[in-house]
Amino acid sequence: MLRHQLAVELKKSITSTNLLIWSTIIFLIPAISFLQYTSGYMFFEEIELFQSIISGIIPLLFPVIVIFIFLQTFIQELKNNYITYVRPRIPKKIYLLSKGITNALLTGLVVFMMIFVPFIFAVYIEPKLGIIKYTPSSFLEDGSSGSTTFSQFLPLGELSYGVLYSLWVTINGVVYASISFSLLLLIKSRFIALSAPFLFYHIFNFIAGVLGHARFSPISTVFPFNIEQQPLWTVIIPFLVLILILMILLFCLRRSNEVT
Amino acid sequence: MSVITLENVSKKFKGNTLFNQVNLNIEKGRIYGIVGPNGSGKSVLFKMICGFIYPDEGNLIVEGKLIGQSKNRFPNNFGIIIDRPGYIANKTGFQNLKELASILGVIDEDKIEDTMELVGLLPESDQKVKNYSLGMKQKLAIAQAIMEDQQVLILDEPFNALDFDSVKHIRKLLDSYRQEGRTILITSHNQEDIDILCDSVYRINNFKLEKVI
């Protein structure tokens, strides 16, 4: 039953509106970001261009972007008593589980593409087009441009770096989207449910900055291009907080489902 | 043949006792009316029968199966209207029904179109449900309750917001379903609906179901 419903949900999600939203997230936002770097900036390596493309609006709006991938359609179902009429056809628990899994799968896919497509473009396509004029690295004192967190993966190869970093952002996106999804089922106010992860993200950034531990802020651990390279373990700290929040919400959800 | 049986069912809802040791037998192929003042528990009774909420005490048996146990948490083959119509506002009526039908996957688009025409809706209309009148939303609710040939219909105020001709039409439709052997439970604030349609009528009074007819 769950497998059938998952197939139904995935098929249902492929609408022209959703395709437009996903294309905007994957192509348009990074493209607009790229355009501002076509002149007036100095780059030494392709990786730097990639990091710049995804350093603009994407980190600022990250928890909002993940909501637009699937949850905006799910909200339509939560409004106007629709789920009552689903229940004679499928147990509510299975229906909502299929929605949660679909949310995670689609958010994961779109967020992965949102990072990986600009990576492929910056590292493999743009050098062939020659839009960006790279400054030879001999101009640098030590011969290499600055490293950032996750540059630890570069010795494995650029493609491995691209895949691993895209997966890291994907996992974070899935967790933020799942927190919003859980809150939508637990809280009556949809506005609060959707804005809570965004507020958490920016309040955590602010507090970490004020306390002088910006390296633990969500923005610096998911998009670590505005601070110097940190050990990889530092990115786990805010991620563990997120996982803890998600676990608590899932526990509450399970209890509320047992009651109703 | 008994389709639904309530045995000594008691239920409190939000701290208030609604039902105390209620017994009821619903026979196949008949139309039952449940009447009672606002807040007397008609919707709660229907939600219990549908397996949305469980009795605090007593047994609810649907087609020989005890509802609420792990394998039989919900009865099958029920068409319902409970509380108010439910819909996805930014989709058309046809798209709404298609989404619901895709869950069970037992009917095709032709059947959805036929059902919409049967209740007086235009299947090819590109009007979003958010722009529907209350009566059209009610027809959509009726359509989803009957489109998969559900054999038991639990209809809470099915005639709400319908115009005179539509009420007559839906009454005829429900009567034809009774003749086919389907079982129907309805509530209505209009006594005429109850008088015309129902074989048996129960009134909720003092936490019990009293047989009126």
Automatic annotation (TrEMBL), chain A:
The keyword Transmembrane helix applies. It comes from the Bacteria. Keywords: Membrane, Transmembrane, Transmembrane helix. The chain crosses the membrane at residues 20-37, 49-75, 96-125, 163-184, 191-212, 232-253. This is ABC-2 family transporter protein.
From TrEMBL, chain B:
GO terms for molecular function: ATP binding; ATP hydrolysis activity. SMART domains: AAA (SM00382). Signal peptide: none annotated. Keywords: ATP-binding, Nucleotide-binding, Transport. Residues 4-213 form the ABC transporter domain. It holds the Pfam family ABC_tran. It comes from the Bacteria. The keyword Disulfide bond does not apply. This is ABC-2 type transport system ATP-binding protein. It comes from Mesobacillus persicus.
